[in-house]
Design brief:
Elements: H1 8-57, H2 59-62, H3 72-81, E1 85-91, E2 97-101, E3 124-126, E4 138-142, H4 161-166, E5 169-174, E6 177-190, H5 206-216, E7 217-220, E8 230-237, E9 244-258, H6 264-268
Parallel strand pairs: 2-3, 4-8
Antiparallel strand pairs: 1-2, 1-5, 3-4, 5-6, 6-7, 6-9, 8-9
Length: 271
Amino acid sequence: MVSRQQKPGKHICRSAGRLTIRLLDGAVNFAVLTAFLLLFALGCYVLWDSKQILQAADTNRYEVYKPTEDKSKSFEELQALNPEVIGWVTVDGTHIDYPVTQASDNDKYVNTDAEGKYSLAGSIFLDYRNQKDFTDFNSILYGHHMADHAMFGDLADFKNRTFFDAHPSGNLYYGGSNHKVDFFAFLEADAYDSTIYQPAVTEDGRQEYLNTIFQKALYLRQLQVDTSDHLLLLSTCTSDATNGRHILVGVIREAASAYGIKDEGERENEP
């Protein structure tokens, strides 16, 4: 009986095939591992970046600058760092406690902090069309809606009626004096709603503007408000609508106290 010899070519082809499969398998494993490591690194970076953004928006970062009886000079130091700092806004019982800035447009402080440095957290800023001494009928402050109660993140809590009722007041510091703010309305609106987002309403449009606020308010507090008052609106994004906005509306009262801001002559005589 004659035995058949296996052709050498077949053996070589099978060996080459097995080698190719092993190489492809190794390449796939390497690609999967590389992709996993890249995704892991990206995830770590995103977490780090988010932490950096939240730290930049932390109220504790600015606490040293907050104008008080014994620290008014620190507020002046912040103004020296950034002359576009014009005041300080506080909503009692919340984490909203920040310097207020104003630029020549509404874009700059979306990504610039109160010290004038680039920051995705931005800062609280007054509409560029408003007077910095808050003498307009309605002045609008803007701030990011951020996690961990940063910037205007706490405005979303006012959607809860109990929270709204428990937080009726705040403070606005400008021109060297504190001004109490009595909040009387909370509403939701579209970012392009010109019936709300029209700062410095003229005298003949004031009553209509007030009526619009009363009509659109989710909640109202019994408070005497008329066209001779000065309104303060705090506005931020909502998390459930692309162009949705939360707005807290209050009345700016007369100066409650002054912090003894020194005039130029007194500063020049300091040692």
